[in-house]
């Protein structure tokens, strides 16, 4: 939709509050922030998407440790599914129940900063973050050069491949260039006589925003391209690199080596996809789902257009920040410093921050490369190493104010390209027009 | 406690209506009657208060808030950050390059029209067949079952059935035909969704139409049989015209459901591929909850409301011309 120009003035606060106030009164009890009596502890709330499984337990461990060792400040975790996280931020914030500590997907940082939800990190914390984390992680946790929180997990993208399927097609190892990628994709593809895909050579998928856009942006970054310009105010996709990526994807779909309609997460795990680009978090899921067949899974860096081209890929991540509405920001930052920077010796006896230990324990990647290297050195999954190496050269996902809308628009046009509704040129033009419009409105 | 709504006692002695007394006595009884009516009105209002409060809280306030937002910009986080935007949100929806009219609104109308046409045709056919069968209750129950299933379950099951290796393609392959990428092809995605929505809403339509069929007097059919009318003539000349009130109800309700459809589409295609199945409700949800553009979402909601109102009025007008009272 075409955005309206920004309004200039403001309605008076009283008028703005008049209508919804009555709606909110009924459902909004005061958030639990401690009793407020002198001597009673402050209770900080932490809202994250670690709602189930190992991540929930992994986060609760350090929180329990903090609560057991700190009398004055206690932390209470609140968790919702990732799909409900942004909505929950909105609703709670509008109702005056915003959590003290929030754990957003870095893509939303610009939107949250523009809405005045995120508090900039105090200088000493910002310095600590810049010193302790890689460029991609710091970039993801920053908006317009200002750091807003501690990066918790960093997801880089790499090429997953099925060794058995590649061997069966007479391919010795994973592709390193796009030419090899295409060749391997065509050689491994198998279809039945009705056109049903038996094996996808290269898995492109319309599963969700992150899958569709992540795959494309990883290839774009590997080709030296960028989705948005350096200042984040316009799209940079309509470039030779963008044209090359779209051309490659269109060919793979048209030649039948990719079948975007197939759920690639299920198909790869069941040996029906030879290669696919995805993020590091998937290794843990694959190990659990595939069992013994996981030994056939290999991971390699995202192929580059030509041999000798510098490596690059996409990185995404989450961070822990402090809400502007928090009544106890100093305590909240102190908790985050304790969680994210203090090194302890965990169960394995390896020195790492509590956050790094919990991420690796949950099969994910910590944003601290040094911790990741140390923790992986003590018997981690070797398939995680390419993701760890990629932290050094990964490009952070753009996270300006209109980033979520831009990502959705990009996804729509990628799908239109894959399904033949748009040519490469049409798709690039449509993305430039739509995303530029969206980004311009948001800034 | 005095029941002020109870009728006045009838055993009371009649008041003498002499000319001299009429002024003061009439004035007194008038005041009493007035006070009595006033008390009745107050009590009536008290009884109505919970319902009125419900409407105010859940209808009037949200409607007012949506109207305010449609004329403002708001990111969804802080109520104090609502900025006036005049008609900019509405202008944006219809501006050059906007996707709201095409494909979003056009998809919405096509989806609703397709659903109504398919569900109406299917339910008339099935309801007429059920009328001829024994154990009608069993058949009605069977056709009603999809209504009891959650949309998410229905959407996921159909999604698997439509997949390249799914049941539908399996049948096509067994017939020697090639596979069709139902949900992945922009040309087939929307019609495929229409089929599912129509299937899911068939049960309620059948229920209404079978009730309508039962209300058709048997004497008409007997007279038609005596005149030698065939089944097709009977259906076109008797059954269908007498079903018009039920058809109107099904038509209006199905169309409204189709225009507001959201869950099935987000489960099955998420609006894709591209924006081939993007509809107004889905776009509103994205604008508000994903992009933080509550003004645009609210403006789109009001435009959709006007479309729904116009279509419903058009349907009522059309059926009234044919002599049916809504």
Please write out the topology.
The complex is a heterodimer of chains A (443) and B (326).
Chain A: H1 13-27, E1 42-48, H2 53-69, E2 73-79, H3 85-94, E3 101-102, H4 109-114, E4 118-119, H5 123-132, H6 135-140, E5 142-143, E6 146-147, E7 149-162, H7 163-168, H8 178-188, E8 190-191, E9 197-203, H9 209-222, H10 240-254, H11 264-269, E10 273-279, H12 282-290, E11 297-300, E12 313-323, H13 329-340, E13 343-345, E14 351-353, H14 354-361, H15 369-376, H16 385-390, E15 394-396, H17 403-418, H18 424-442
Parallel strand pairs in A: 1-2, 1-3, 9-10, 12-15
Antiparallel strand pairs in A: 3-12, 4-12, 5-6, 7-10, 7-11, 7-12, 8-9, 13-14
Chain B: H1 19-70, E1 72-73, E2 83-84, H2 88-93, H3 100-132, H4 136-148, H5 151-162, H6 167-174, H7 186-214, H8 218-226, H9 231-242, H10 244-259, H11 263-268, H12 280-290, H13 294-321
Antiparallel strand pairs in B: 1-2
Helix pairs in contact in B: 1-13, 3-7, 3-10, 4-7, 7-10, 10-13, 12-13
Could you give the order of strands across the largest sheet of chain B? Answer: 1-2
**CATH homologous superfamily title of the largest domain in chain B:** MetI-like
Stretches with pLDDT under 50, minimum 5 residues of chain A:
2-17, 19-32
Quaternary structure classification: heterodimer
CATH topology description of the largest domain in chain B: MetI-like fold
Judged by helices, strands and strand pairing, the structural class of chain A is alpha/beta
Tally the helices of chain A.
18
Poorly predicted regions of chain B are: 1-23
| Domain module tally of chain A | 2
Largest beta-sheet characterization of chain B: 2 strands, antiparallel
In total, the number of strands of chain B is 2
Q: How many distinct folded domains of chain B?
A: 2
Q: What proportion strand of chain A?
A: 15-25%
Terminal Cα separation of chain B, in Å? Answer: 43 Å
